Amino acid sequence: MQKLVGSFIATTNAFDVEGALSMFAADAVINDISVGNAFVGRDGVRLYFERFFVGYNTASRLLSIETLDDFNANVRLDFTGDFGHEIGILKFATSLEGLIKRIDANLE
What we know:
This protein has three helices and six strands; from the N terminus they run H-H-E-E-H-E-E-E-E. The chain has one domain: Nuclear Transport Factor 2, Chain: A (Roll), CATH 3.10.450.50. With 108 residues, the chain is of the alpha+beta class. It has a six-stranded mixed sheet. It has helices at 2-13, 17-21, 41-54, and strands at 24-32, 37-40, 59-67, 72-81, 84-94, 100-107. The chain is globular, with a radius of gyration of 12 Å.
């Protein structure tokens, strides 16, 4: 999980939307409670990254990872960008193939 999270942070910080998308299952979901919306499938995930990472010049820094089991982890990130500064929790769920199936996101 540590490697996947590291790759997620590196690709999103580089605004590499295609690289980030390659880590997600085709039917993945990002449910972002802080924006009140779920982003479904690769098209939804693309929209999420383009809007909230590229669009706001978001940079993420890992604060902690709590590994729950082989497929789930809670990740605490420090976000900075055009919006200012926020701390967020991303709950990652992965598939047997090591792809991200779901992220439940919220701000502290």
